Amino acid sequence: MVTWEPDILGERFERATLPLTPDPQGEVVATLVRTRRSALQRLAASVTPLSDVDVLYVHGWVDYFFQRHLAEAWESAGARFHAVDLRKYGRSLREHQTPGYISDLDTYDEDIEAALSAMGHGEAQSTNRRLFIMAHSTGGLTMSLWVNRHPGRASALVLNSPWLEFQIGGLGREALTPLLEIGARITPLRSLPQVDFGFYTRTISDQFEGEWRIDPRWRPERGFATHTAWLAAVFTAQRKVATGLSIDVPVLALLSSKSTISRTWSEEMRTSDIVLNVDEVAQRVPRLGRNVTLVRIDGAMHDVTLSAAPVRERVRSELRRWLNGYGRTR
């Protein structure tokens, strides 16, 4: 039985805590967030092309769901919007846990299945509604592999700056992999050198120079510590993408047109991706499946939906255009 309660995002949002199998650190949960609709909103949505669509949004590394405007965009198109805070992130983070830590991205299958079951899309459930997945950064990597492993479950996949390749490219990733795999076996929780200088938080948080209200407990200024087993898990997943996936549904990948990766601050960081090497990622996108659309957006930041207002409108326009083609029919 799923129990819903008011969420921190306000009266239009509610959340449910989803118990998962405990791990060596103790209790583990995921948290599903959804929007609430009035009777009038339900009636208006019933005549839209996406009236039979449920959306599940999956966040990235050092992240959680806070993008009210993203939920509103999907709801205005007629879809029912849900977002999951994965284990050890955001609403699901507990004091006894290492934030964001995992040693195999496939472990998130349990989180995703719990969320989908609460939405009525569980593996053993029957529904006439379509499932659209939207995922950001590391979540985009995780969900690309999930959709590939679970053919027939989703009807569409929207990727927001998915972390499909390491910043120094495939050759660099392959060179580092043996060392990371050894470290993951011997000292899985060993912290890696800090590479987050706080620039991304500076560009998005209203506590600095951005426009978004972010909880520093769940998204600290310089991120979480990274660990050998976690990065080894990411490399394993990226290698699978590089080899090629066979995703059986239409895929839309949204990326900034450029990256600005630097140890010193630059104003260009407000209008580019300062986390990923977007050119390396763009080379991996066609390997996801047979029906893939790649859109590069001038002025977009790492989370393209958090970019400046004119860029966000371009993102929304590109999403609408893609949905007009692939979202209207089963």
Structure commentary:
- This protein has 330 residues and is α/β, with parallel strands linked by helices.
- The protein is 32% helix and 19% strand.
- It contains 9 helices and 9 strands.
- The protein has helices at residues 39-45, 68-76, 108-119, 138-149, 169-186, 199-204, 228-243, 278-284, 309-326; strands at 5-7, 10-23, 26-35, 53-58, 80-85, 130-136, 156-160, 251-256, 292-297.
- Strands 1-2-3-5-4-6-7-8-9 form a 9-stranded mixed β-sheet, with helices on both faces.
- Strand 6, helix 4 and strand 7 (156-160) form a beta-alpha-beta unit.
- Helix 4 packs across helix 7 and helix 5 (169-186) crosses helix 7 (228-243).
In short:
The chain has 330 residues and is α/β, with parallel strands linked by helices.
